[in-house]
Design goal:
The strands form two sheets. Strands 4, 5, 6, 7, 8, 9, 10, 11 and 12 form a nine-stranded mixed beta sheet that branches. Helix 1 (5-18) runs antiparallel to helix 2, helix 4 crosses helix 5 (77-92) and helix 16 (352-372) packs parallel to helix 17 (392-400). The chain folds into four domains: 5-133, Orthogonal Bundle (N-utilizing Substance Protein B Homolog, Chain A); 138-168, no CATH class; 184-240, Alpha-Beta Plaits; 243-442, Rossmann fold (3-Layer(aba) Sandwich). The chain is globular, with a radius of gyration of 23 Å. Helix content is 45%, strand content 14%. It has helices spanning 5-18, 24-34, 39-55, 57-64, 77-92, 98-112, 115-126, 144-151, 156-166, 168-179, 195-204, 231-234, 243-252, 269-278, 291-304, 352-372, 392-400; strands at residues 184-188, 218-221, 238-240, 259-262, 283-288, 309-313, 325-331, 373-383, 404-406, 417-419, 422-425, 435-442. The chain is of the alpha/beta class.
């Protein structure tokens, strides 16, 4: 049997993530652009394999360790990736037969290693469990943190933090939610067509779309890969975006003719949403410290045909700009833990030290935003995470300095309001990622 091209491509992606530290979405995008012969079904299976293996990495390694004679870490990285992907298929891919999983893994080991590693892969995976009932996990009641960490492949420090904050039952619900793949969602470009018009276009073209949240521009689909190659995407009728992320521009409430700053603009989802809501007479400055990522803002603005966006390369903590701006959006860099269902590799990157460092950056960005905002203007802060340090603590610190005051946004955002000016979405809501948003009014 020839080497399976989808699984072989999956190992390429996993090696970029595990060996070279590349972000999973970037690593997969490289392969999808190169492998044009996989077809839609092959692309979907490739995505399932790499996201699932990264998502359940800790559990897969836990299963493998007692089946090996040597430490798992001493194996070559390609063989470790092949073994983990094999265990993932055995436990999570009902469409894959166990013999097919073993055979394809052995063939991959021959290509990526040698005859000896192929024999090792064969011997190990033939003994791999095929059901969760067969797993050896710490007792849930006696060692809840260890149990949840391994069962749901979450870093131990993160599970311990969630148990302390929410209790064991809610921590487990959070683990389950963050391990459940997110639905595919798009933001309709209402500068070109209404949401209902775009829904009709896509339904007629054979795409299954629904409107599943109160967010006005949202549409949800079972899968987005083919849609991103459609004429509707190329003509700028929509942009992939989570509904929780769409709340930010609505909290800013941009108006025609205003001067608006998006301090951390790339890749342009919120920037183009601001332009879409404000209309062509608004002037939106899109700032980002990465020239390459700033290019993505321009490409999205051009595809969506949204004028009035001016890019500038700079660090928001030491802004090259001079105010005043009518409104400032601070979509700050954060740990991203509210988006683990879309970016599972983040949980293997983030540490407690990362969170504290980012919180300092976030406070600095908000101080700069307040300085650049006109008296009486609006500042909106948003992060796609759920840690107290990056949400409540940042808001509390900035409010204590007295330059801004908390202010509520539009009434339709009330379902997510937790206190004056503060909004939160939780990943336990299957329709939304975990976001924190805060709206401030600049004091005169």
């Amino acid at each position: 049997m020839p080497l399976d091209p989808v699984r072989n491509a999956a190992i390429d992606v996993l090696l970029r993530v595990f060996d070279r530290g590349m972000h999973l979405d970037d690593a997969l995008d490289i392969t999808l652009r190169r492998k044009t012969d996989l077809g839609d079904r092959g692309r979907r299976f490739l995505t399932q394999l790499v996201y699932g293996t990264v998502r359940h990495k800790l559990l897969c390694e836990h299963v493998l360790r007692p089946l090996l004679r040597q430490p798992f870490e001493e194996l070559p990285m390609p063989i470790r990736a092949i073994l983990c992907m094999g265990v993932f298929q055995a436990l999570f891919c009902s469409q894959v037969t166990f013999p097919a999983m073993v055979h394809t893994a052995v063939e991959l080991a021959k290509k990526r290693g040698h005859a000896g590693t192929a024999r090792l892969v064969n011997a190990v995976l033939r003994r791999a469990p095929q059901a969760f009932d067969a797993l050896d996990l710490p007792a849930r009641d006696a060692r809840p943190a260890d149990h949840l960490s391994l069962r749901h492949s979450m870093p131990p420090w993160l599970v311990e933090r969630w148990i302390a904050e929410y209790g064991a039952a809610d921590a487990e619900r959070l683990c389950v939610a963050l391990n459940t793949p997110a639905p595919a969602t798009i933001r309709v470009n209402t500068a070109k067509a209404t949401r209902d018009q775009v829904a009709r276009y896509l339904l007629k073209a054979g795409f299954q779309v629904t409107h599943g949240t109160p967010v006005p521009e949202e549409l949800t689909l079972p899968e987005i890969g083919a849609l991103l190659r459609s004429k509707w995407f190329l003509r700028g009728y929509f942009m992939p975006q989570d509904p929780a992320s769409m709340l930010a521009a609505h909290l800013v409430e941009p108006q025609p003719g205003e001067r608006i700053l998006d301090m951390c603009a790339a890749p342009g989802g919120k920037t183009t949403h601001l332009a879409q809501l404000a209309g062509p007479t608004a002037r939106i400055v899109a700032m980002d410290e990465s020239p390459g990522r700033l290019q993505a803002v321009l490409e999205n603005a051009e595809r969506l045909e949204l004028p009035g966006i001016a890019p500038i390369c700079g660090d928001g903590r030491r802004s090259p700009l001079r105010g005043p701006f009518d409104r400032v959006l601070v979509d700050a860099p954060c740990s991203g833990l509210g988006t683990l269902r879309r970016h599972p590799d983040l949980k293997w990157r983030v540490t407690p030290e990362t969170i504290h460092r980012l919180a300092r950056t976030q406070r600095d960005l908000l101080r700069t935003a307040a300085a650049l905002c006109k008296n009486g203007g609006l500042v909106v802060y948003t992060v796609c995470t759920i840690t107290p340090e990056e949400t409540w603590d940042v808001a509390k610190a900035v409010l204590a300095e007295g330059a801004v005051a908390a202010e509520d946004g539009p009434a339709w955002l009330e379902p997510w309001r937790v206190t004056t000016g503060q909004y939160r979405t939780l990943p336990q809501d299957a329709a939304l990622d975990g976001f924190f948003l805060m709206r401030f009014r600049k004091r005169s």
